[in-house]
Design brief:
- It is built from six helices and eight strands.
- It is an alpha/beta fold.
- An eight-stranded mixed sheet has the order 1-2-4-3-5-6-7-8, sandwiched between helices.
- The two termini are about 20 Å apart.
């Protein structure tokens, strides 16, 4: 496995990005792995490595970079009201979709210049706060993003003018949307509305509700980790990328 941390130039600065890919058999299709709200940590590095081992050039950017390089948080970030949680929320609550779309463009351009990455179809997937980013990216860059996945994405249907539910039909790539049955950040009524909009979009993908699990089920270090559901999430994601990226 080849891995490095590099700064990728963007419109607003330089985004610190963990990059990993197989040692042999390249070039490999690029995949953007968009973090959840608690931010960059070794747990996500390990997930990026797992995806890279099956043949992908994985980029995991610190989407909080505009707030500084110290936007990495300790384990208390998951404890509501803790100092780390408050520090993260001060950054998270200022995030909107448009600047992240600029970051996606910069990351794709970076991958295009790497000999270890193929130049063409790109995949993107996001968890939690980044589920909407992944879907929005598929709509914003339909000629590049061939596959996009959202895992327990938060507030995919909202009043925001850039809410991803408004542009599902613009995506040319295959979409996969995974929702947890128990999720206060994507309640049943929202998921029902999203399912209707997704069906009307005509996309060839799937919206799946994972029964019996909670928001965050795919992360091994969460209280709600569900091994069976987590392995199913890997099965769905890798199959999606195999179909659309090779």
């Amino acid at each position: 496995m080849i891995e490095t941390v590099t700064d990728v130039a963007t419109k607003d600065g330089r985004i610190e990005t963990f990059v990993c890919h197989p040692e042999r058999g390249g070039p490999h299709p690029p995949v953007l792995f968009l973090m959840d709200a608690p931010g960059i940590r070794e747990e996500l590095h390990d997930m990026a490595r797992r995806l890279a081992t099956v043949g992908y050039y994985v980029l995991l950017p610190n989407l909080y970079y505009r707030a500084g390089r110290d936007t990495k948080y300790g384990p208390d970030v998951l404890q509501n009201g803790s100092a780390e949680h408050q520090r993260m929320r001060a950054v998270r609550t200022k995030m909107t979709i448009p600047p992240v779309m600029d970051d996606v463009a910069a990351l794709i351009a970076f991958a295009d210049g790497q000999t270890a990455a193929t130049n063409g179809r790109v995949g993107v997937h996001g968890y939690c706060m980044s589920g909407p980013y992944a879907l929005a990216a598929a709509a914003r860059y339909p000629d590049r993003i061939a596959a996009a996945a959202s895992f327990y994405g938060t507030w995919i249907v909202s009043d925001a003018v850039e809410s991803p539910h408004l542009n599902l039909a613009k995506a040319k790539g295959e979409l996969y949307i995974s929702c947890a049955e128990h999720d206060d950040l994507a309640p049943p009524a929202m998921v029902h509305e999203l399912k209707g909009l997704f069906d009307k979009s005509g996309n060839s993908g799937e919206l799946e509700i994972c029964a019996g699990v909670h928001h965050g089920f795919a992360f091994p270090q969460r209280w709600c980790y569900d091994k069976a559901a987590a392995e199913r999430h890997w099965e769905r994601l890798i199959a999606l990328y195999r179909r659309r990226l090779g």
